[in-house]
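User: I've been trying to design a sequence by hand for this structure and keep getting stuck. Would you show me what you'd pick, starting by listing the structure so we're on the same page?

Assistant: Good idea, let's start from the same input. This is the structure you sent:
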């Protein structure tokens, strides 16, 4: 009986607060993915250049360094629930503003860049608090399971959001995707307000030690395992993750011809549906292919997250993390080399599985290795490593794609990333043996 419970992939959902969080985040994250797809597509449509996509990622790095460490410090000093309510409200306002700019016809590329920077600033205050808040909802016993479920949640939304975004952008335009994302934040805010938390979790002491924003960095530097985990996440984010920045280029160039029959069939089906009618004529059919590719990543990521939730607590985390570290760049290399849309979707499913095994398990292992008093600041450094390197990676990928083309850029990044992962697992052998 205890063994069955230990391997139950959904046991964190027995907590009322986490159930509220799970449902609200599913709705909100689906909206966030819709905005991500629409935002990338809008920049590429307005500029026609992969360099513009890279610049957007590069500019969004600017708020990260000061705000990630500051956000982690806030998460250790103040009630995390209320911090999240505030940051989610700010992101809702950003989505509505972007929708208005697009609907009014005033939108220009620099507007989208500025909105991306603003969103990045809000996320750097939000993410450390959200990640450190999980333990308050489920306790230490179910922390690993809840983190794995968070990853499945994030990536299930990656199926829903991009799939909807592809149709919404193709038929109703980018502004509607931004507006729907703004509405989606209401779900998570309502869930947070409805939670019943013990009084001990709603207060933080304002002491000098807990306010030190560099304490998380010092904690990571003192532990070789934490150094290895954070470095692998950062390198992967810089070299492998930028493939998402270049997917609009694949949709409009490399895979356009092989995707055309699938896209045409979906557009005809949407146009013939009761809900579609004359409104659902695909004026941007390549956006549908883009949404399908992002959805394929989400399918794989959900499968990987559920496996991690079921078996990650059974002494398999280090081994699964290793397979994710190595499998992620290998799957991306296969994706970059194919010219078949269906084969590309298959490689993207594998990419999603490996990505989750790498990042969700790294997140779990980091949180289980640190004390709650410093958890927010450690997760602030982790967030900075992932987000900053991913956005800088998007900048380098956009610039490289303008020179080498998107397929060669993804392939080169995958090869270098794989080489580092092999070296890192030799340098930090204890990671693959972590329970």
């Amino acid at each position: 009986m205890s063994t069955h419970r230990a391997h139950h992939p959904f046991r964190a959902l027995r907590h009322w607060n986490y159930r509220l969080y799970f449902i609200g985040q599913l709705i909100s994250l689906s909206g966030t993915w819709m905005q991500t797809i629409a935002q990338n597509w809008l920049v590429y449509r307005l500029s026609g250049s992969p360099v513009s996509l890279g610049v957007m990622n590069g500019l969004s790095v600017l708020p990260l360094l000061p705000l990630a460490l500051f956000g982690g410090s806030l998460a250790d000093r103040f009630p995390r629930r209320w911090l999240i309510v505030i940051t989610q409200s700010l992101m809702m306002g950003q989505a509505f503003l972007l929708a208005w700019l697009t609907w009014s016809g005033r939108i220009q590329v620099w507007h989208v860049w500025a909105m991306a920077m603003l969103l990045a600033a809000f996320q750097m205050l939000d993410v450390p608090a959200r990640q450190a808040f999980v333990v308050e909802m489920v306790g230490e016993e179910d922390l690993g399971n809840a983190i794995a479920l968070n990853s499945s949640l994030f990536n299930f939304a990656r199926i829903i959001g991009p799939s909807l975004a592809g149709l919404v952008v193709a038929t109703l335009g980018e502004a509607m995707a931004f507006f729907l994302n703004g509405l989606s934040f209401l779900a998570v805010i309502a869930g947070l307000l409805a939670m019943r938390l013990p009084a001990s979790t709603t207060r933080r002491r304002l002491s000098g030690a807990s306010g030190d924003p560099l304490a998380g960095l010092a904690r990571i530097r003192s532990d070789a395992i934490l150094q290895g985990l954070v470095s692998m996440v950062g390198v992967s984010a810089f070299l492998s993750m930028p493939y998402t920045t270049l997917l609009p280029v694949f949709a409009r160039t490399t895979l356009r011809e092989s995707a055309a029959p699938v896209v045409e069939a979906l557009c005809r089906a949407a146009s013939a549906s009761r809900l579609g009618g004359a409104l659902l004529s695909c004026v941007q059919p390549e956006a549908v292919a883009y949404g399908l590719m992002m959805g394929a990543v989400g399918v794989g990521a959900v499968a990987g997250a559920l496996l991690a939730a079921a078996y990650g607590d059974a002494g398999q985390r280090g081994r699964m993390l290793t397979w994710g570290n190595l499998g992620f760049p290998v799957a991306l290399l296969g994706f970059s080399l194919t010219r078949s849309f269906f084969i590309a979707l298959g490689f993207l499913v594998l990419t999603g599985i490996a990505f989750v095994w790498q990042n969700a398990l790294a997140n779990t292992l980091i949180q289980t290795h640190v004390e709650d008093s410093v958890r927010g600041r450690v997760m602030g450094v982790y967030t900075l490593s992932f987000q900053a390197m991913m956005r800088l990676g998007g900048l380098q990928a956009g610039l490289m794609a303008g020179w080498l083309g998107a397929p060669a850029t993804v392939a080169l990044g995958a090869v270098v990333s794989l080489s580092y992962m092999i070296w890192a697992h030799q340098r930090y052998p204890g990671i693959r043996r972590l329970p």
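That's my pick for every position. To get oriented when you compare it with your attempt: The two ends are 21 Å apart (CA to CA). Residues 43 and 109 are 6 Å apart (CA to CA).
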